[in-house]
Each structure stands twice: as C-alpha cells, then as structure tokens.
Amino acid sequence: MQPLPNLPQKLKSAQVLVRFVFRLLILTGFALFGSVGFGRSLIARLWMSVVLCAVIALMRREQFMGTDLNHWDEMAAYAALCALVSATGW
C-alpha cells in the first residue's frame, strides 16, 4: 500500500474565497432556525467561526499577513462581520 501524498499547505486565494462564502451561507442558514433569534444566533456562530479559523491557522502554521489568503484572513472577515451584526442591533 502506498503512503498518502502530503496535502498542500497553501490553497489558492480563489479556493479560500469559495470556502468562506460556502461557510457563510451555511452559518446564515443555521442562524435562520436559531431559537434565540437570527441576530443573536448569527453572532454566536460567527464567533465560533473566528475561534475555529484561529485554531486551524495555528495548527497548520499558516503565515499571518501572507501574500495568499488563508485561515487568518478568513478569521478577520468573520470577526468584522460579527462586529457589523453586533453594531446593527439585529
């Protein structure tokens, strides 16, 4: 049996953007059915995404402020969306 090839450490920026949009659609869909209301449910899910992206970036040892998009950039986008949703008072 041959060993599995190493997974690539870097993803193309387009792949990261597609992953971000797909996750955001899933988060929004689950927030629609939250029992505490859409706004509070979305804020909680965005915070969980911030923590998850930070943990994944640390585990993969991704470069902070690199040239390609990575989990650090995704974390910053989720944090910005969380701040936006919190400020609007949804």
Please characterize this protein's 3D structure:
With 90 residues, the chain is mostly helical. It has a domain at 40-90. It is built from 3 helices and no strands. The protein has helices spanning 13-32, 38-60, 71-88. It is elongated and about 50 Å long.
Indicate the topology.
Layout: H1 13-32, H2 38-60, H3 71-88
Helix pairs in contact: 1-2, 2-3
Which terms would index this structure?
single chain; 90 residues; mainly alpha
Order of helices and strands: HHH
The geometry reads as elongated
Give the beta-strand count. 0
**Estimated share of beta-strand residues:** under 5%
**Could you give a short account of the major beta sheet?**
none
Q: How helical, in percent, are the residues? A: 55-70%
Quick gist of this model?
The chain is mostly helical. The protein contains three helices and no strands. It is elongated.
